[in-house]
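Give me a protein, keeping tokens residue-aligned:
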Amino acid sequence: MQIKSFDKTISGNGLYPLTSGGINTLQVNLGRLCNQVCRHCHVGAGPDRKEVMSKETMGLCLDVLKDTGITAVDITGGAPEMNPNFRWLIEECRRLERQVMVRSNLTILQGPGYEDMPDFFAVNKVEVIASLPYYTEQNTDSQRGKGVFQKSIAALKRLNALGYGIDDSELSLNLVFNPGGAFLPPSQKALEADYKREMRKRFDVSFNSLFTITNLPVGRFLAYLNSSGNFERYMDRLVSSYNPSAAANVMCKSLISVGWDGTLYDCDFNQMLGMAVNHGAPSNIKDFDFSKLSNRQIVTGLHCYGCTAGAGSGCGGATT
């Protein structure tokens, strides 16, 4: 299958080279250790993964925050809560008065030793971004494993009890939808309305916003596409759905991603593909140069069609 290069496609819209427009978010991947093994996971995370960010590397991330005007920290994994220095990092980020977001799979909050994590989040005013593939048990468990849905609902109820996702509360709770197969997400606005109605009616659960995120052909989802014979069809769908407006608003233009070992990437997807920051910009947190990185050329590939298809896709959901 011959696929037109992403750079050639954006050149036709005057968007090449794709460059950073400044950095307002430091995305920190604390490792690939996770209590789940999800079918769509681009990280390939699981209980047997050994990649875990050290406290020393976290300290370098904090140094970057001290020395720059980066306002937000987006903490992800794996299950980032499983990193032994997770709580310390959040407390230090809050001490620096930075906005902190944590991407949680929810089920970890029900695990031994993590039962008080929702309280910790609330005390530190952490924004919780939680994965919930659908508002039915069958759809969710088929993607993330048996029993995941019920544990997720229990965790959401606990977060609601603390004020998360409740009107007029300062504690933000957002959910994430990933398609269960080789297709694009539906309208984010319409799906959010469905989620809010059904989650309230079925489980008395509330949340602030729903983010729809396209599955990119990376990691475990790429393996699924190949094994199921869906790779060519899915790539054709992404390419044919390319949206110049989405390309102009990709998330990598405003963030930098830090891998568990300190390597710098333009996004978490590039991180999983081993495509470090390039084009003359420093590629390790030890050599962080805010000026160079804020004006860097972004490393692209065929997977970038995923973030630019349809309504666009980023860590905050649809981009157009």
